[in-house]
Amino acid sequence: MVDDASGRSRGRFSAQETIWAAVAVLRDWIDTYGIPRALYTDWKNVYVRKPTEAEEVSGVEPLTQFGRMCRQLRIRIIPASSPQAKGRIERNHGTHQDRLVKKLRRKRIGDFEAANRFLVEGYWDEHNRRFAQVPASEEDFHVAAPSRTSLDRVFRLEETRAVSNDWVVRYANRFFQLARQSHRPPARSTVRVREGADGQIEIAYRDRRIQWHEIAGDTVPAKQARTPQAWQSPSLPPTAPATRSEPYRPSVDHPWRRGFEARAAKRAAVQTAVGA
Questions:
Q1: How far apart are alpha carbons 182 and 167 in whole angstroms?
Q2: What is the pLDDT, as a whole number, of residue 218?
Q3: Contact present, 34 and 8 (Cβ < 8 Å)
Q4: Residues 6+ away with beta carbon under 8 Å from 97
Q5: Does residue 36 or residue 217 have the better pLDDT?
Q6: In whole angstroms, what is the distance from residue 266 CA to residue 30 CA?
Q7: DSSP letters spanning 92-116
């Protein structure tokens, strides 16, 4: 990350640009300088995403997990449409790709943990002393960072999950047995499953935490697949369709036959009147 006003920089090494990698960089910045007012990012789906059709119709703002965390901290995300729009950060990356890589090679550092320790212990301080500039305004627009506990609550993944009739919640191919709140099963209730960077799980219903314990997947009753069949009356056994050896002929008192005879008599009467 680069401060647009002063050019101060911070960053961390990660294997991939994932949600937790982005959270680690942002949290390190917040611990050092405070909460920024806005982030100028690219269009990677870690930061922003395009709205679905339902969101476009309802006007709901599309948010990623990282975007939801930033909204809780009142950080505005501004996506850039091209690398040229982020000229400052791209030039900054070029500097680190040259200087930082050479320094890591000179110190024989080849793993992420040692590289991140090198960044914190001196590289960023030295880099900012040499390349940071005095901002045009002395006013610092960063917001004071909240407590570590508050940040822990913000930087968590959140998903909505349905509760089955046996009070089991499925999340990330894991099954959590909830402590029963009553003798009746929930009627299509949903809960919020929250997962921290350390893997800790919290399940809440209407913002109230629920006790749970994890169960093995093979202990969850599996739903048996049923083949759809035609409905049959429970009082009558299924019958096979009857086969006919002769064409069907209606009986003498059949309504169709009575109508046919009446029409035939009417035609005969008309013909007799015309002949007369």
A1: 10
A2: 67
A3: no
A4: none
A5: 36
A6: 99
A7: HHHHHHHHHHHHHHHTT--SHHHHH
- Which residue in 59, 19, 66, 16 sits closest to 39, CA to CA? 66
Q: Name the class of domain 19-148.
A: alpha beta
235: left (phi over 0), alpha (psi -120 to 50) or beta: alpha
Provide the pLDDT for residue 151: 95
Residues ≥6 apart with Cβ < 8 Å to 167: 177, 178, 179, 180, 185, 186
Domain ranges of the chain: 19-148, 155-219
Tell me, what's the pLDDT at 103? 93
Tell me the C-alpha distance between 203 and 192, whole Å: 6
The residue type of 129 is R
Distances (CA, A) of 198 to 16, 127, 145, 213, 268: 17, 31, 21, 18, 97
DSSP letter, residue 27: H
Left (φ > 0), alpha (ψ -120 to 50) or beta: where does 213 sit? beta
Per-residue pLDDT at 230 exceeds 50: no
- pLDDT tier at 227, thresholds 50, 70, 90: very low
